[in-house]
Amino acid sequence: MPIVRIEETTRRDARQKQAVIATVFNSLRQVLGVSDEELQARYQQYQPEDFVAPGGMADYLHIEIVMFKGRTLASKKKLYRHLVDSLVTLLDISPAAIVILLREYEADNWGMRGGTVASEIDFGYRISV
């Protein structure tokens, strides 16, 4: 049940934004086996004066992914590498400009699908990968 938030100051048109979201979703599907039905995203563009990037990087791209707890460190490393490689290719930016933050929560802390505790839902994919 990843919830993705993408933040940056770079101006992109609707097609480019959708390509960034699709690239992130593709990485989540390929590396973690996440179902399309569970993916959601928010894309936020800031005015340069409203956003301070590390080292003043103009191409800075912040990706935050909220998901169920349970992935291994090896899976997380693979996800980071896949995301960075894919986004560098798509956007022609420096790998150092991309920061990925994972926020993991126990499935008991998610109420969804009409108030059902997420730990009681079969999502059709394994969380412990």
TrEMBL record:
Source species: Serratia rubidaea
Top-level taxon: Bacteria
UniProt protein name: 4-oxalocrotonate tautomerase
Lineage, top ranks: Bacteria, Pseudomonadati, Pseudomonadota, Gammaproteobacteria, Enterobacterales
